[in-house]
Write a structure and sequence with these properties.
Blueprint: H1 3-29, H2 50-57, H3 65-96, H4 102-114, H5 121-130, H6 137-141, H7 148-159, H8 163-171, H9 176-187, H10 189-205, H11 208-213, H12 222-230, H13 235-267
Helix pairs in contact: 2-13, 3-7, 3-10, 3-12, 7-10, 10-13, 12-13
Length: 275
């Protein structure tokens, strides 16, 4: 094994440890009583399920983690479906059709991706307030549509599809919509799955905008609910309950990533869906 390969594997090992150790600590202490936090041991000496019971059934802190998980699920599903409905046709148009100002418009879209999201907060909040959507799930969902990164990924994929496929379909009498729906969309399935997974994880973990636009427990998604939960009492008393909530709410996204990682890898290779 060459030195370059050894160095690469060592780097990957270090990065894996940096990612894995906090996850292990989160998992272990979510099963520990609060007194274990103050001992400073890596592995708790006592174990309990009380933290998860409080997370699932205790609403005295003003927030409900199960309700927040339901809100996050609704937000995630609506945003993912909306993003795919908007991003796939937009990416196809930028990649396969010619119209005046196409490159300029796409460049402006990319510039919007480079802008800090905090710059849009005031105008977005004002818009949601005028529409009467403050403190609602719709007020969280709508500003997340569409996703520029999805348009970029899908456009790059569509650009690599050979033109011969379209020409053959046109000779067979297929319309432009049939070419898009029956040929291009199935070919782009890996890239579409990639955008879906990235959008789902982003939507589930999004914190800043839901924190700004909601102030009622009934509309809080998971990140905001956990923030309220951790701020309810002192860190020492509430730490393990917060860790249990974080562990429980992280499981869906961890499982989604493990299931979809092969799609993410293949979706980043433009020719992976072309047989």
């Amino acid at each position: 094994m060459r030195n370059a390969e050894i160095g690469r594997w060592l780097l990957l090992l270090v990065l894996a440890v940096l990612w894995f150790v906090p996850l292990v600590s989160l998992t272990l202490y979510s099963f520990a009583p609060p007194s274990e936090v103050l001992k400073g041991n890596f592995i708790p000496s006592q174990w309990t399920l009380d933290n998860f019971i409080k997370v699932l059934f205790d609403t005295t802190r003003g927030v409900s983690i199960p309700a927040a998980m339901w809100n996050s699920t609704v937000i995630m599903v609506c945003q993912v479906v909306g993003i795919l409905l908007l991003d796939v046709p937009a990416a196809y148009a930028f990649a396969r059709t010619k119209f005046v100002g196409r490159n300029v418009l796409f460049a402006l879209i990319l510039v919007s991706m480079m802008m800090p999201g905090i710059l849009e907060v005031i105008s977005l909040y004002d818009l949601m307030a005028n529409l009467g959507l403050v403190n609602t799930l719709a007020g969280i969902i709508l500003p997340g549509l569409p996703r520029v990164i999805g348009i970029f990924i899908l456009r790059q994929f569509f650009m690599e599809v050979p033109r011969d496929l379209e020409e053959a379909a046109r000779i067979d009498g297929a319309s432009e919509f049939q070419i898009f729906l029956r040929i291009m969309v199935p070919i782009a399935a890996p890239a579409i799955m990639t955008v879906m997974i990235i959008s789902a994880i982003y939507s589930w973990n999004n914190f800043l905008w839901p924190l700004i636009v909601t102030n009622s427990p009934e509309a809080m998604p998971v990140p905001v609910a956990i923030a309220y939960l951790s701020a309810d009492t002192s860190a020492a008393l509430n730490y393990t309950v917060t860790l249990a909530a974080a562990f429980l709410t992280s499981l869906p996204m961890i499982l989604l990533f493990l299931f979809g990682q092969r799609w993410i890898v293949s979706g980043m290779r433009p020719t992976s869906g072309i047989k």
